[in-house]
Amino acid sequence: MTIAASASTKDKPFVRSARPWQKILWVLWLALLIVGVYGIAQRLSHGHEQAGYGSYVPWGLWIGLYFLGVGISGGSFVIGALGYILGWPGFSKPSELRTAIILSIATIVPAFVGVALDLGRMDRLINILISPTFTSMMAFNAWMYNIFLVVAALCWLLSFRERSMWLKPLLILGTFMSILFPSQSGVFFEAVRTNTFWHSPILSVLFLASAIALGGAALLIVKNLVGSESADEKSLREHYESLHKLRIVTILGIAVYAMFEFAEFSIAFWNPGTHSPSVVFLLFGDYWPVFWILHVLVGVILPLLLFLSSSKALWALGSFLSIVGFAAARMSILVPGQIAGQIPGLAAAFQDMRLVYNYHPTPMEYFVGCFMLAVGMTVFFVGHSLNKAIGHRA
Fold first, then answer.
1. Closest to 392 in 3D by CA, of 90, 13, 9
2. Could you tell me the domains of the chain?
3. How does DSSP classify residue 353?
4. DSSP-based three-state secondary structure for 58
5. H or E segment at 229?
6. pTM (predicted TM-score)
7. Which comes out higher in pLDDT, residue 326 or 273?
8. Would you list the DSSP string of 256-297?
């Protein structure tokens, strides 16, 4: 009887030790949703009046979160697809591939929400799809993101079929697009030739490196929370190996990003023949806490120290901090590139709160940012629930 009970227990699905986190995540989701709905109500009733951006600095927090979501989406899909195709332990099962795909979709959807809310006329958003001009980087990106969503959805559906001949070719196509659109985010800025802070070919490399790091960090957090599918020794070992691999990927992504970022700023700052108001504003001006505290300390130094431990919980914490740091890195690219006036004397020509070369997010913008996070959590929860329901029947 004891042997039978033991065998029965062994065949049961693995119960995660992280189950208490479910209640915390539900409370967090509810809090984000309540605050976020309030922010959406402010945005819809007052337009952009309560936002901190203006005529000279038109892009703010929501666009920064948009680029962050795109990076996580692309990086998580690349890692999940390559892990499945190459048969990495902890990535080779269809269920593990589906988790990466759902995470990718759940992070790009709120990015679209942020862009839509940033527009003055949200009803014209569809125009970029029905009457595009493909010489525009915005139109090119919009079409590429929507095609990627279709490819990702098809990969998700095909993963439920045994030995589908189309799955791996579509995963390869999705991987190519996932590598392309974080790089295109860099090109989006690089194409602005009149802006010396943005007009740098290294931005594409920075966005790509950060996407890989963000994908690794987000997958590490999700895999920590989801846990292993079963309690047998092989599955648990593969699960731990996948976390270890994601830890290494995140470390390398952070290191590469920091190296190229140092190269970029050192050239701009120490060259005696150049003067960059944007770099001075970022490193020593109003935005120094965003760069030095949120990006460098919270997003680079602390995660690397936490990744030195052998604790999976500390790895997850380090991953979360690195995501916060890369959010600050996005703002460190977005905002300083807008504060340097292109016309000398323009800042003093007109006096108005909307006509200043400075930007800090307002409470309303943070509230809407909370709504974007709640949307992402909702999409992932629905997708993960479908994974378990359909996967159990398949």
1. 13
2. 31-393 (1.20.1630.10)
3. T
4. coil
5. none
6. 0.89
7. 326
8. HHHHHHHHHHHHHHH-TT---HHHHHHHTSTTHIIIIIIIII
